[in-house]
Amino acid sequence: MTRPNHLSAADYTADELSQIREAVDATTSELVTLLTACAPDGRWQPTETDQLAQLSEADELLDRMYRSLGRARRSINRADECARSRFRARTATTSVMTNPPT
Prior knowledge:
By secondary structure, this protein is mainly α. The chain has one domain (9-42, 50-89). It is 65% helix and 0% strand. The protein has helices at 14-38, 51-91. Helix 1 packs antiparallel against helix 2. It starts with 13 loop residues before the first helix and ends in an 11-residue tail after the last helix. 3% of the residues are buried.
């Protein structure tokens, strides 16, 4: 069943899909590297003994993860916006309002 009022794979270009894969691959790789270094057994192991230094270390780790995830999210958002633009252009004259305002 097709859903004419929703994005489809056809709305994305091969380059956009490649950029999404590359961004997710880079993020996955970076997270694996971080986790291997900081949580080899699945639990964070701070390198510092001082509690305040541990807080700083945790903040830095989470910041690096957040930035990596943000880069992937922005890449996906760019591709989605391009696809939505093509979708809107494709459906502008064929879209039928299913619930018109009353």
